[in-house]
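Render this sequence as a predicted structure.
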Amino acid sequence: MKNLNLGPITGLRKLGMALVLVACLAISASADIVHNVTTTEGPDWVKVHIAGAHSYNVKHLPPGNADYRSIAVDIHGASIAGGLEPKAALPVNFGLVGQVRVRQMGSTVRVYIDVINWPEYKVVNTGDGVTVAIRAFMQRRKDPAAMY
């Protein structure tokens, strides 16, 4: 019986492969899958629910081509379920809220909430995702960029 022993290099390779495997499993286990983005309206509010998102950051983007400002919710380390790209825009057209858009940007899913002017809102982690609760007819007193 022959035993081909290449010395400590083989052991290091095995250790390296094991560490790579563990890192890949950790990354895939912690990645969020965005299953659905829905909007609901009430008498004076709009809620945008991002199902499957847990870790998020919120940014305020200035007016773009369509004169909308955007509340951007970034879900880092996430992907859209099935790798599908949703339709271009989900029209809301209620109060200060114009539309909602979803884009995959590398390893980040960004949900744009396009608004006419900055509304009052809060972001809540609901356990099964993230909800942005917007007071559709209540404009913020200060420019969000000045608040950070």
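Summary. Residues 1-7, 15-29 have pLDDT under 50 and may be disordered. The domain at 33-147 is CATH 2.60.40.3500 (Immunoglobulin-like).
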